[in-house]
Amino acid sequence: MRRLVGIPPIHGHESPASWLTRAALSQGVEVKELMTYVGLSVKRDPDLTLAGNALWNVANLTGQAVSSFGFAEHMFSGVRSIDPTGEDFLLWTKNGMPRYRYCSLCLHEPGCKHFPLHWRFKAWRWCPIHDCLLGERCPHCRCDLQLPGDMLNAGLKREGVAHLGHCLKCAERLDTGWESTPHPLKEGLVAGWEKAVLENGRALLAAIFHRHFFITGNAKRHSLDSLTRFKKMGVLPQDLLLLSGQSLQVRRNQRKATLRNHPGFYEGRSARERS
C-alpha cells in the first residue's frame, strides 16, 4: 500500500476521531474509506483503538510521526485501563456512536478547527480557557456531534463543509451565539460547590494523565483504578452536575431583573446602559 500525501498533522490535544475526519477530507474521500485503507475497523471507536501496531500502521501510511499521537494514545490507554469499553467515562450517542461536546468560543477563534480529545469526556463540561459550559448539541438541528464523520458530504444537501466548525448533519456553524455565551465563574452564576465540580472535571483528566490523584484533605495518593470505585459511589463530576447553558442563561436573566429592581441600580449609569 502506498503512503498517502497531503494528510494534515494531528494537533497536540486533538482526538484521533477528529483527525481522521479532517484527514479524509484532505483525500477527498469518506472517512470509512480512509479508515479501511489504513487498516482501522469502521465498527470500532478509533479513539480507543488507535494504539500499538494499529497506530504504527496508520502513522506509516499517512506520513505522520508516531510520537505526534503520543498524548492521545496516553490518555485513551489510561481510559482503557479502568474502563475498557469507554462506557463509564466517555460520551456516546443513544445508538452507541462516539459523541462530543464543544466550546463555541474555541471554534470561533482563528486557526484549524478541530475537536480536542477532552471534549469526549463526560466529566469535561467547562472550558477553562473561555469560562463557559460546553455545548451538548448543534444549536441549529439539535443533533449530537458524532466523530469520526464525513465532511465531504456533510449537510442536508450533502454539499460538504470546509472545517469542523460546522455541524456535519446540517452544515450550520457551531459557534452561533458565541458572543452571548454565559461565563459562570466570571459572572458569578454558580454556587461554590458547582464551581468545584466544574473544576474537578479538569482534575479527573489530570488524574488519567498522571495515573494517580489526591483528594483534598487527604495526603494519600490514590491509584488510577480507584476512580472506578468513586464512579460507583456517584461522586465523580459527570454524576453531580446538572448545569446547562440554558439554565445559566436563566440565572443571568434573573440576576439582571433583580439588579434592575434594586433602588440604586441606575445611579451613575448612562442612558444607553439603562436601556
Descriptive account of the structure:
- It contains eleven helices and six strands.
- The radius of gyration is 21 Å and the shape is globular.
- The chain has two domains: 16-179, no CATH class; 192-263, no CATH class.
- The protein is mainly alpha-helical and 275 residues long.
- A hairpin with a 4-residue loop joins strand 2 and strand 3 (132-133).
- The strands form three sheets. Strands 1-4 form a two-stranded antiparallel ribbon. The protein has a two-stranded antiparallel sheet with strand order 2-3. It has a two-stranded antiparallel sheet with strand order 5-6.
Tags for this model:
mainly alpha; 6 strands; two-stranded antiparallel sheet; globular; 11 helices; 275 residues
Tally of alpha and pi helices: 11
Poorly predicted sequence stretches spanning 5 or more consecutive residues: 270-275
Structural class: mainly alpha
Strand arrangement, largest sheet?
1-4
* Range of helix content: 25-40%
Q: What fraction strand?
A: 5-15%
Average pLDDT confidence is 92
Number of domains: 2
Order of helices and strands: HHHHHEHEEEHEEHHHH
State the major sheet. 2 strands, antiparallel
Q: How far apart lie the N and C ends?
A: 66 Å
Number of strands: 6
Shape: globular
What value does the Rg take, in angstroms?
Answer: 21 Å
Task: Give the helices and strands, then pairings.
Layout (H helix, E strand, L loop, with lengths): L15 H11 L4 H7 L8 H4 L2 H11 L7 H13 L16 E2 L3 H5 L17 E2 L4 E2 L11 E2 L45 H19 L1 E4 L2 E6 L2 H8 L3 H4 L4 H16 L10 H4 L1
Antiparallel strand pairs: 1-4, 2-3, 5-6
Helix pairs in contact: 1-2
